[in-house]
Design a protein that fits this description.
URA1 protein, about 110 residues, elongated, mainly alpha, 2 strands
Length: about 110
């Protein structure tokens, strides 16, 4: 997972959430013209898994860390801060598009 965190995050052109929403709204016009059904925010449910999707649980464990007040190295803190920024951006956009659920297996160690 450490290599994954070092890689560029995968998201469309790394657009800010507002730009992504504006791009979606522009595409809605095209879709409406083609007669496709668009779901409203009330009809939309977006589900994210917590462990190793939003939160890098395996990486945290591989690094020998816990999230209970442990001191992080500057490199670890930088990676977690960038991840937190991107997760916040992603979840904020998702909440604007519909109802968001975070699910987890909630087992000890995760």
């Amino acid at each position: 997972m450490a290599a994954l965190l070092a890689a560029e995050p995968v998201c469309p052109q790394r657009l800010p959430a507002d730009d992504m929403l504006a791009a979606k709204e522009d595409s809605d016009v095209e879709d409406d013209v083609e007669g496709r059904h668009q779901f409203s925010a009330e009809e939309t449910l977006i589900i994210f898994d917590w462990d190793d999707t939003v939160m890098p649980s395996s990486w945290v464990m591989e690094e020998g860390l816990s999230l209970e007040g442990e001191d992080f190295t500057p490199e670890q803190q930088a990676k977690l801060s960038e991840l937190a920024r991107l997760a916040t951006q992603t979840l904020t956009l998702a909440m604007r598009l519909g109802t968001v659920l975070l699910v987890t297996n909630a087992e000890h160690g995760w």
